[in-house]
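hey can u run this one w/ flavin-adenine dinucleotide bound, need the structure tokens asap thx
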Amino acid sequence: METKRVAIIGAGVSGLAACKHLLERGCRPVVFEAGTVVGGVWARVPDSTALQTPRPMYQYSDFPWPDTVTEVFPDHRQVMSYLDAYARHFGVLDCVRFGRRVLGMEYHGVAEDDVAAWEEWGGNGQAFGCAGAGEWRLKVADAEGRIETHKADFVVLCIGRFSGVPNTPTFPPGEGPEAFDGQVIHSMDYAKMGTKKAREMIKGKRVTVVGYLKSAVDIIAAECAEVNGTDHPCTMVVRTKHWIIPDYFAWGVHISLLFLNRFAELLIHKPGEGFLLWLLATLLAPLRWLFSKFAESYYAIPMRKHGMVPDHSLFQALATCLIAIQPKGFYERLEEGSIVLKRSKTFSFCREGVVVEGEVSSSSLVESDVVIYATGFRGDLKIKDMFASEYFRSVAVGSACTTVPLYRECIHPKIPQLAVLGYSESIANLYTSEIRAKWLAHFMDGGFRMPSVAAMQKDVLEWEKCMKRYAGGRYFRRSCIGLLHIWYNDQLCRDMGCDPRRKKGFLEELSESMALLIMLTFTPTARKTTRPSEAALVI
Ligand SMILES: Cc1cc2nc3c(=O)[nH]c(=O)nc-3n(C[C@H](O)[C@H](O)[C@H](O)COP(=O)(O)OP(=O)(O)OC[C@H]3O[C@@H](n4cnc5c(N)ncnc54)[C@H](O)[C@@H]3O)c2cc1C
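ok here u go:
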């Protein structure tokens, strides 16, 4: 691997892990980072953003959080410092070229028709393809706009999915932002402004936020409502009600005991399962329903008062990674009236603000000065846009009715010498990126081969079927492995030739869960003794 030219694009959680694991195997990758710091998305979130995943689950297995950080949910500055320390400690920082944006890339050396016809991934099932014939050429722009070409034998795309290409609503002519006298921005631009400027922009203004997930509740609840109070209540336009929960305990039971352990995975149909597992999942399905209802009955109590109980189950929310932790004081702000919720399936603009279609019937005007879209991102388009050739663009992200086709959620069966880390989500993304980075480095170092293209495609389809089954019509393209993390983890372990069983006894293995780990980790004595590797391996 020493002689191989490897390019990693992005220096967030995924890019840092990929670089660290390749360095360990003697490879010296170049990391192109468009920004000026490591940390990715954490460098550009609203000021009030904190982790939603408990700290022990957002920790590299060989790099514990410092003892000075004791919060269960560290804030984004603490996450940034932690990631920066990781990059320094493992020499990753020396590999990063900041202020270098990769504009696009092309595959050279093998004709596209040949690539399309390959039955083995990359021609031979190995990382660097057939006799080194193919290479990627990356167009890289520096901060001054100068463009140079960089050649690579392998590219690891770690460009993230919650930044870059905003997902913005579309409108019939005359009903979009052009009809509005005020300002319309995306949460991405709001976060980019920095705290001081962002607060100045919303101060004393009538702010409407469109959306009801993490960025929306952070901006509106924690920032707009704090800045403007009840004088200028902030309005949230909510199309889909989501499970925005205060913490992970329902009636005192950690929800990982219900959903995130080996036993809980027995209640779910899994990709590639045999007859016995199929039978178990079928017979135990009512238990899954019961667990979900149990947790919902607790979390729904404050939501019911405001008519905000989601139409979908908590189980489905976890299956799609569509769950968020409330910022502090969210319901208090609703009670005092500094936040107003407007449920609406559709909305449009007029000169004075936003017209929402009420759930009951009549439309109503929400007078606004500033409208902030907290409507998410198009991570799939970001991947597609990296490719110059029509062929790769046409296959890269599948279609609206498929998932983004990535084998082991990392490798596209039809795109050689390239991996994607960080597109598919979980409940603890840092952990997921780390295990993928380990797996990828192992593969690139010759530790195992890819199966045939047909076998990879079959596996991708099995996962897609499973995601469609539990995610409902709209959300399967999120590629969330949240509820099958252990099954997924085991597959990666087996590829690497590691024993996926991590506990001594059968029952221990079956019941071990994040909750246990969290309880252990947060008792003062255990905090000192719990090894970081245990924290990462337990889910
Ligand atoms: C508000 C918010 C809260 C979140 N909270 C949690 C949480 O609690 N728990 C959790 O598990 N996950 C959370 N996430 C998800 C989070 O995205 C992941 O945890 C993780 O940080 C993703 O890391 P990444 O490296 O894959 O992507 P990113 O962090 O997005 O990093 C991608 C990097 O690539 C760079 N880049 C992109 N395109 C190019 C290009 N063309 N050329 C060069 N560089 C490029 C970007 O500048 C960026 O630095 C949250 C996300 C958001 C937005």
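Residues 514-539 have pLDDT under 50 and may be disordered. anyway lmk if its weird
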